[in-house]
Design a protein that fits this description.
Blueprint lengths: L1 H13 L51 H18 L3 H12 L8 H14 L3 H15 L8 H16 L3 H20 L4 H21 L3 H18 L5 H16 L3 H19 L4 H16 L3 H17 L3 H17 L3 H12 L7 H16 L3 H16 L6 H17 L3 H15 L6 H17 L3 H19 L4 H16 L3 H18 L5 H17 L2 H10 L1
Helix pairs in contact: 1-8, 2-3, 3-4, 4-5, 4-6, 5-6, 6-7, 6-8, 7-8, 8-9, 9-10, 10-11, 10-12, 11-12, 12-13, 13-14, 14-15, 14-16, 15-16, 16-17, 16-18, 17-18, 18-19, 19-20, 20-21, 20-22, 21-22, 22-23, 22-24, 23-24, 24-25
InterPro entries: TPR-like_helical_dom_sf, TPR_rpt
Keywords: TPR repeat
Protein name: Kinesin light chain
Length: about 550
């Protein structure tokens, strides 16, 4: 099986993992080979020359011993399996091998077929069957880790992820990670370990994102970048993509400050390697615009967006260009340039199809500009048309529609139409609850529903939404995220409204601790949480704490 293992080693150096709803870039040394024959060890081909035996004696050949015949037959079966290019050929050759080899000897062949099936993606259950078979054959001794065992575990993680069995996937991948760590400690060659380790880390990030654990996924993506930094030249395009992937992940958890250096690094690498007019540079600049918007540096954001639009226009990437123009209009709205934003959106809307999702998004942005101008009748007309389009697309693009509903609800909230806003948010929540990878969005929407119910005096109804939101966001962003602090602050206000000052004090204390860490003790919202805590202690009659916290605040 030495040749088979050699071909699997080559496969390990080329494999990569594709992501779930949103992909992280992969690189050449980790990419799966698209043609199987590139991975195979071809048998030696001997060239024979014509030769005429001039002797007159008959030469007798000695019979081949049965043991040698068996070795030759086994070798021929292995060669046939190795030379198979299609899945059908591999399965046929494997069937022949089953008649001769025992289960332990078939481990590597089972692994190779599992990898092939998983790459094709047409029959994940069959790939899972071969992966399990390979693991049973290769992992006879749990105390003796090996690279084939790590590859089996990574394959099982990948297939279970494809089947949306996220907990099972996470278990296999964590075990693969531990095996690879032990192999590194034992001094196995980094060229063998790195490709598999990269695949495991990338898949761990994908699984955690799918489970809504986005903060945890960041650590795995950072490790992916570290592996690439050890593998590629410092100005490699693959490092540019890896830096952008990490920046996007930070944007997803609203950590724009951490996203900025990675986005700038991606732009630097792509500009140096590909020039100012490359598509990669356009994508970097679009992302940089989003980062600057998150940091409320809207002028810088708009500047990057304009530069990205020029490149997209040069490459005739019209769909991306339309999205960039919508982003630009939203940046103009943030800057208070409402007429300019409406003019931009009027130009975009005529380039969209009547019932397209893009037209709905244009109308939502136009409604936002009109709402800020207090043109409420025109704003409502835009929102109604947009809702009519989005309603038809709930099954096609549930996540995108949910995001649009959430944005529309904000416009109704701005116009003080809270009941309509709450109904739209509940529709949003119904869509997101079916998408496990959107747990963070589900938490944010629950928090908004809770806050609006609290605002409209429906305090008792608000509490379950706020409690659910706190749990969701803690799982997604970690227990010290500022968003979690705001939810606990609102929970404190709800309990105080229900004359439960002790429960309120507990919530305000948690909110203050979180905001001290995430926002700093001198931030306005941290001070407000401190004042609320002081008020709760005052309601309880514990005036020594009331005066203490009032003094601190």
């Amino acid at each position: 099986m030495r040749k088979l293992w050699h071909s699997l080693s080559l496969l390990a150096r080329r494999r990569s993992i594709s992501s779930f709803s949103k992909s992280y870039s992969c690189d050449a040394p980790f990419n799966r080979c698209t043609k199987t024959h590139e991975l195979l060890i071809q048998p030696n081909k001997f060239v024979t020359t014509p030769f005429r035996n001039m002797g007159t004696l008959v030469q007798k050949t000695s019979p081949i011993p049965s043991r040698q015949r068996k070795i030759m037959k086994n070798s021929q079966l292995e060669e046939t399996f190795e030379s198979a290019e299609t899945t059908e050929e591999m399965l046929k050759a494997f069937s022949n091998m089953e008649e001769v080899f025992d289960e332990r000897e078939l481990g590597l062949a089972s692994l190779k077929i599992g990898l092939k099936l998983e790459h094709e993606g047409e029959d994940p259950e069959k790939a899972l069957s071969f992966a399990n078979r390979a693991l049973k054959a290769l992992d006879k001794d749990n105390s003796n880790p090996s690279l084939p065992v790590a590859m089996c575990l990574q394959l099982l993680g990948s297939v279970n992820f494809r089947l949306k069995r996220f907990s099972d996937s996470l278990g296999y991948l964590n075990r693969a990670n531990r095996v690879l760590g032990r192999l590194q400690d034992e001094g196995l060659g980094v060229d063998d370990v790195r490709p598999v380790l990269h695949a495991v880390q990338l898949e761990l990030a994908n699984v955690k994102n799918a489970m809504g654990r986005r903060e945890d996924a960041l650590e795995n993506l950072r490790k992916c970048l570290e592996i690439k930094e050890m593998t590629f030249e410092k100005d490699s395009g693959e490092l540019g993509k890896a830096n952008r992937d990490l920046a996007e992940a930070y944007v997803a958890v609203l950590n724009f400050k951490e996203a900025l250096p990675y986005c700038l690094k991606a732009l630097e690498i792509h500009t140096k390697g590909l020039g100012q007019n490359s598509v990669e540079v356009a994508h970097d600049r679009k992302l940089l615009g989003i980062v600057y918007s998150g940091l409320e540096e809207h002028e810088k954001a708009l500047e990057q967006n304009v530069l990205a639009q020029r490149i997209l226009k040069n490459w005739n990437l019209n769909a991306d260009l339309l999205r960039a123009e919508i982003d630009a209009a939203n940046m103009m709205i943030a800057l208070g340039r409402y007429d300019e934003a409406v003019g931009t959106l009027n130009g975009v809307v005529h380039q969209t199809e009547k019932d397209s999702e893009t037209r709905a998004l244009v109308l939502v942005s136009m409604a936002k500009a009109l709402c800020n101008q207090e043109k409420f009748a025109e704003c409502k007309r835009c929102l109604e048309v947009s809702l009519g389009i989005l309603d038809k697309r709930e099954r096609i693009s549930p996540v995108e529609v949910a995001e649009a509903y959430s944005e529309i609800s904000m416009q109704y909230e701005t116009m003080n139409e809270f009941e309509t806003a709450i109904l739209l948010l509940k529709r949003t929540l119904a869509l997101l609850e079916k998408q496990p990878q959107e747990q963070h969005s589900e938490g944010s929407v629950s928090a908004r529903i809770g806050w609006l119910l609290l605002l409209t005096g429906k305090v008792q109804k608000a509490i379950p939404y706020l409690e659910s939101a706190a749990e969701r966001l803690k799982d997604s962003f970690g227990p010290k995220h500022f968003g979690v602090g705001y939810i606990y602050n609102n929970l404190g206000a709800a309990y105080l409204e229900l004359d439960r000052p002790q429960s309120a004090a507990q919530m305000f204390a948690v909110a203050k601790d979180i905001m001290d860490v995430s926002l700093g003790p001198h931030h306005a919202d941290t001070i407000e949480a401190c004042q609320n805590l002081s008020k709760a202690y005052g309601e309880m009659g514990r005036y020594e704490w009331f005066y203490c916290f009032d003094f601190i605040c």
